[in-house]
Amino acid sequence: MLAQRFHLAITTAAFLLAMPAFSREKVTVAVLDFEPKNVTAESAEAAVDLLRTELFNTGCFKVVERQRIQKILEEQRFQSSGVTDADQAAEIGRMLNVKKIMIGTVTLLGGTHILNTRIVDVQSGQVELAEAVESRGGEENLPRAVTELALKISYKIGLEGHVIRITGETVYIDLGSADGVKVGQTFDVIRQGEVITDLEGRTIGAQSESIATVMVTKVQDRFSETAVHSQTTPIQKGDRILPLSEKKAAPARPEPRREKPPVQKKPGTPHPEDKGAVEMPALF
Question: DSSP label at 140?
Answer without folding.
Answer: G
